[in-house]
From TrEMBL:
Family of this protein: Belongs to the glutamate-gated ion channel (TC 1.A.10.1) family.
Role according to the record: Glutamate-gated receptor that probably acts as non-selective cation channel.
Topological relation to the membrane, as annotated: Multi-pass membrane protein
Transmembrane segments: 591-610, 652-678, 832-852
GO biological process terms, semicolon-separated: cellular response to oxygen-containing compound; monoatomic ion transmembrane transport; response to wounding; signal transduction
Coiled coil: none
Composition bias type Basic and acidic residues, residue spans: 907-920
Pfam families, per the entry: ANF_receptor, Lig_chan, Lig_chan-Glu_bd
Keyword Transmembrane helix: yes
InterPro entries with a match to the protein in the record: ANF_lig-bd_rcpt, GABAb_receptor_plant_PBP1, Glu/Gly-bd, Ionotropic_Glu_rcpt, Iontro_rcpt_C, Iontropic_Glu_rcpt_pln, Peripla_BP_I
Protein name as annotated: Glutamate receptor
């Protein structure tokens, strides 16, 4: 009982400490009643207030009322209506609808400390610390323009025309679009702004000027009430036909979604248009609200996305008020001494009151975190009070027939297009891993204006009456490439490069008017780097000429497909190698001649050894055999040897040797031909390595990039470089470094080929050490560069490019020569030691096999036929005396045996083998008769005849 009393006392104390909740709280609403957004927002706001007052968990006994003021699409009227609303001491304002009014009213809200919770002011500039009491209950246009940029990048368009209403809303959205396009390497090339409330004539005038530009990708950023007038004017100008791209921001989806009876009229104007709609996930609360909206609407309108955000904005304000009151907040207003009527003014500014607890209520509103009909509602104070949904996303819609169809989504989580529905929350995205983020950006097929499914090219040549300004280098040397037309032609320029450009332009499916402008003073060749920079700076629209495609230039301009292959080469003087009566000895070094001759004799001797016993052609007197060895050895050089080889080993050695002779003969012939016909370099420079290792001066052409390449890439000091005109090439090379000339010249291959065609005493040395080409330079992201690249490929395939080349760059008086000369070096042993090694090993193996066979036969031939018993009974001294002269006889016998014919040896071996078998058989028969018979019968020698 005592505990109960204590609780009652505590509750009473709390009731006394906390102020009582007010019976009602008033909020305001600022929007244009008679507008697509306002008509949807009015019903949604009222439904939200009714739902809040029926919900016992929100405000808990405090009734919420709303005061709505009509801004009438006027900035001035909107400001007055906002002041009147503030005069009625509202604690928060849902709105304003217009970004322009929001900029003005935000200053009033800052002064009176009344939070503004806007559901339709999407200007990104409002998310600024300048407006601390502005809370955006919708996505700003920075998200939407990022989605538009993703669409532009998906189809590869590079230039966009922005058509927008010239207000804070329109300008802020277009600025965000320009920033977003930079991420996909695109840009806004023309801004077509029209004033609010512009009539049909004014809109047509704006579109006519926009249509004169090259871009055919139009992004329309307007309001739902006037945006359709733009498409009506475009349809009258035939700008809704095939080849055009129209992308409308979310205002168009809002206009179509709001229409119930006249949707066919609206969609008939925007066939093929791509538009966006703020994505809100489907839910029971959203479906219920839409059903109740349809029953409550009195103007046959349906709810659009702005109505959904207005509904949640009211709920966010109510939850913030509830949290504020729950913490004991007390609503009070006080006068501001800075706001007063001066000099008898009747504006009644002194009636405006400051909301004393406005800062506290603002913090509570920003802490809102709940699930509404638009998804997860959460504010981020660090982002300037902008609403931050878990996954800000947009639906990509395509208008066709009598309605729209969804072709994809764009999610701020992935920052890319996808046909997959965006994830509900970041937590879900993290749980599913990176699969969706790694998914390839894509959309379903789009039906474009003109009922085509192929993505339009997105640009045409501008029809603004101004031809392209084409910069052409004013060359003073080798004018066959490009220069001023001395005959005074209609274009004022001529040359190979100009003809290629004209032929490529003729293949384009649209006319391209051009105006050629000479670049240079006509005294010396101009700087090509400066010409390219003029294109990048916008002084020229393009540059046509012998312009090399190098890295530093591709950073500032776009090049077409190369129409000439090029690269840096080295030119050096050459001299004719005079020949004399001993020129035939020069292919081989002395060591090579000595080793070759020695091997001829060595192989001849080996073959003689292998053939001597078998082949009668290798037998005879010693003098004849020596002559045979020499004759056979050197006759194999010409494959003219008369002696035939009959032994297997001899044929094996000869086969190997003839292969070696074939290689030696071929190499000798090639080297001798080169020595007698090829010109030799008069300097020691044989390529890039020798050029860099020397300290001799190097020439380069005036205006060429060769200077920067040699210095920056190869580290050649500037003191070694000499700037030369092509007309000075020959004189500088002939004089050489000793007489003030240069040792070599580095220039591009096309110039060098033309120079060498009339200067036969010079050659290129080494290989090309850069790989590039000549192309036409255009400003960055110019679509004309892409189309001309295709045209250049066509010229190459049909042979026109070669015909233009032959017309201007015909060969000179010099004979056709190789692009690189190779000095004829003498051949030495290092090039052939492998062949000699193979031949030597073959000879050595053949001799070993031959000697082993000879020794085996010799043992068989000199086998002791008398048996071991012949020497029985001899003393050891007598045996040693007999053995020593026997060794000498064996050596003489071996030499005689080697000189014997193979057939005689075989007959002797067979004969002695038969005698040994006969002796063994007779000996066996005498042993079988036994000793008794020898005693009983006298010896035959002693018996009488």
């Amino acid at each position: 009982m005592a505990l109960l009393l204590r609780l009652l006392c505590l509750c009473s104390a709390l009731a006394v400490a906390l102020p009582a909740r007010p019976p009602s709280v008033t909020i305001g609403a600022l929007f244009t009643f008679d507008s697509v957004i306002g008509s949807s927002a009015a019903t949604a706001i009222q439904l939200a207030v009714d739902d809040i007052n029926r919900d016992a968990t929100v405000l808990r006994g405090t009734n919420l009322t709303v005061l709505m003021q009509d801004t009438m699409c006027s900035g001035f009227v909107g400001t007055i209506q906002a002041l009147e609303l503030m005069e009625k001491q509202v604690v928060a304002v849902v709105g304003p609808q217009s970004s322009g009014i929001a900029h003005v009213v935000s200053h009033v809200a800052n002064e009176l400390r009344v939070p503004l919770v806007s559901f339709a002011a999407t200007d990104p500039a409002l998310a600024s610390t300048q407006y601390p009491f502005f809370v955006r209950a919708a996505h700003d246009d920075a998200f939407q323009m990022a989605a538009v940029a993703s669409i532009v990048g998906h189809f590869g368009w590079r230039e966009v025309t922005a058509v927008y209403v010239d207000t804070d809303y329109g300008r802020g959205g277009v600025d965000a679009l320009g920033d977003a396009l930079e991420a996909v390497r695109a840009r806004i090339t023309y801004k077509a702004a029209f004033p609010p409330g512009a009539g049909a004539a004014a809109l047509s005038d704006v579109l006519v000027r926009a249509n004169m530009m090259e871009s055919r990708v139009f992004v329309v950023h307007a309001s739902p009430d006037s945006g359709l007038d733009i498409f009506a004017a475009a349809q009258g100008l035939n700008m809704m036909d095939a080849g055009y791209v129209w992308i409308a921001t979310e205002w168009l989806a809002a206009a179509i979604d709001s229409e119930s009876g006249g949707s066919a009229r609206r969609t008939g104007l925007v066939q093929g248009v791509v538009t966006l709609r703020q994505y809100t996930p489907e839910s029971d609360a959203k479906s219920s609200l839409q059903a109740r909206f349809d029953k409550s609407s009195t103007k046959s309108r349906r709810m659009n996305a702005y109505g959904l955000f207005a509904y949640d904005a009211v709920w966010a304000s109510a939850r913030g008020i509830d949290a504020f009151l729950g913490d004991g907040g007390n609503i009070s207003f006080s006068a501001d001494p800075n706001i007063r009527d001066a000099n008898g003014s009747a504006l009644r500014l002194s009636s405006l009151r400051v909301f004393d607890q406005g800062d506290q209520l603002l913090r509570k509103v920003l802490l809102a975190n709940f699930t509404g009909v638009t998804g997860r509602v959460r504010f981020d104070p660090d982002a300037g009070g902008s609403m931050a949904l878990a996954d800000p996303a947009y639906e990509i819609l395509n208008v066709g027939g009598t309605g729209v169809r969804r072709v994809g989504y764009w999610s701020n989580t992935t920052r890319r297009l996808s046909v997959r529905m965006p994830p509900i929350s970041r937590q879900l995205q993290n749980a599913t891993g990176q699969t969706q983020q790694q998914q390839e950006q894509e959309l379903y097929s789009v039906i474009w204006p003109g009922d085509t499914t192929s993505p339009p090219r997105g640009w045409v040549f501008p029809n603004n009456g101004r031809p392209l300004r084409i910069g052409v280098p004013y060359r003073t040397t080798y004018t066959q490439f490009v220069s001023r037309d001395p005959s005074g032609g209609p274009d004022g320029v001529s040359g190979y490069c100009v003809d290629v450009f004209k032929a490529a332009v003729a293949l384009l499916p649209y006319p391209v008017p051009v105006s050629f402008v000479l670049f240079g003073d006509g005294v010396k060749n101009p700087s090509y780097g400066e010409l390219v920079q003029r294109v990048a700076d916008g002084h020229f629209d393009a540059a046509v000429g012998d312009i090399s495609i190098v890295t530093n230039r591709t950073r500032v301009v776009d090049f077409t497909q190369p129409y000439v292959e090029s690269g840096l080469v080295i030119v050096s003087p050459v001299k004719t190698k005079s020949s004399n009566e001993w020129a035939f000895l020069k292919p081989f070094t002395p060591g090579m001649w000595a080793i070759t001759g020695a091997f001829f004799l060595f192989v001849g001797a080996v073959v003689w050894i292998l053939e001597h016993r078998f082949n009668p052609e290798f037998r005879g007197s010693p003098r004849k055999q020596i002559v045979t060895i020499f004759w056979f050895s050197f006759s194999t050089m010409f494959f003219a040897h008369r002696e035939n080889t009959v032994s297997t080993l001899g044929r094996f050695v000869l086969l190997i040797w003839l292969f070696v002779v074939l290689i030696i003969n071929s190499s000798y012939t090639a080297s001798l031909t080169s020595i007698l016909t090829v010109q030799q370099l008069s300097t020691g420079i044989q390529g890039l390595d020798s050029l860099l290792s020397s300290n001799e001066p190097i020439g380069y052409q005036v205006g060429s990039f060769a200077r920067s390449y040699l210095m920056d890439e190869l580290g050649v000091p500037a003191s070694r470089l000499r700037e030369l005109a092509i007309t000075d090439y020959a004189d500088s090379l002939q004089r050489g470094p000793a007489n003030g000339g240069v040792a070599a010249i580095v220039d591009e291959l096309p110039y060098v080929e033309l120079f060498l065609s009339t200067n036969c005493q010079f050659r290129t040395v080494g290989q090309e050490f850069t790989k590039s080409g000549w192309g036409f330079a255009f400003q960055r992201d110019s679509p004309l560069a892409v189309d001309l690249s295709t045209a250049i490929l066509t010229l190459s395939e049909n042979g026109d490019l070669q015909r233009i080349h032959d017309k201007w760059l015909s060969p000179g008086t010099c004979d056709a020569q190789s692009t690189s000369d190779v000095a004829a070096d003498r051949l030495n042993l290092s090039s052939f030691w492998g062949l000699f090694l193979i031949c030597g090993v073959a000879c050595f193996v053949a001799l070993l096999v031959y000697l082993a066979r000879i020794l085996c036969q010799f043992c068989d031939y000199h086998h002791d036929t008398n048996g071991a018993g012949d020497q029985e009974g001899l003393s050891p001294e007598m045996e040693r005396s007999l053995r020593r002269p026997a060794r000498l006889r064996s050596i003489r016998d071996l030499m005689s045996f080697v000189d014997m014919k193979e057939a005689e040896v075989k007959r002797a071996i067979r004969s002695r083998s038969g005698e040994r078998r006969l002796d063994r058989s007779m000996g066996a028969s005498s042993v079988s008769e036994g000793p008794s018979s020898s005693l009983s019968r006298p010896s035959s020698s002693m018996s009488p005849v």
